[in-house]
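#structure-requests
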Amino acid sequence: MSTLVWIVLTCVAGGALSVLAAASFALRVSAGRVPMLISFAVGALLGAVFLEILPHALRQADSIEVLAATILGGILLFFVLEKLVLWRHCHVEQCEAHDPNDPPNDHGRSGTMIMIGDTVHNFVDGILIAAAFLADVQVGLVTALAIIAHEIPQEVGDFLILLHSGYSRQMAFTVNLFSSLAMVVGGLLGYFALSSLEQWIPTLLALAAASMLYVSVADLIPGLHKRTEPRHSIAQVALISIGISTIWFARFAFEYGH
């Protein structure tokens, strides 16, 4: 097969397989367990940022200061985007966003933020797959397998966040699958214009990291603090640790195999 066919096939398979594998677990979770499993999502997001995305961005960045400024600007950007989502759902003073009681979900805010970041991340993954295949087919296959492996735990977290954010199971699956198509777009652009896109990879990774950090710290962790009972707190710490460990294990296993 030609290099382009390899890139397209692995991007399609990689995006679809990671979403399907994550959905097979996340969509079987009962609605009552979703708030608790959000702790796992926090761990998976933080693990993806600090163990996968930022190290990769730092290795390719020409300036650490510029990369840090991009992350800072990304966090501010996602704050503004969340405000726009809030305004869309709240046109009067007495709306659900002003309800002093805890709402069952956040009316799509964290789901919107995480899908923006995940789409950017998938786009960058597609570029990385294209670059690997342009170097060597075997390197491309190993890279694609590694990307699928680290995407699965992150996709599980994304599904849980979407359900927590008020999405139906079908809509969560559809949105996640649509987001995975960005990997194909990144692969195609990477094949035809890798030399011009390569310099943008650190910036795109920084924006993906900013979205995941913002969702974790601003949207999800404050909700965890509302459950102050010792047994809930212990379970939250354990699940956050499991989420981080899952990302670390996937990264370590495929780096060792490579």
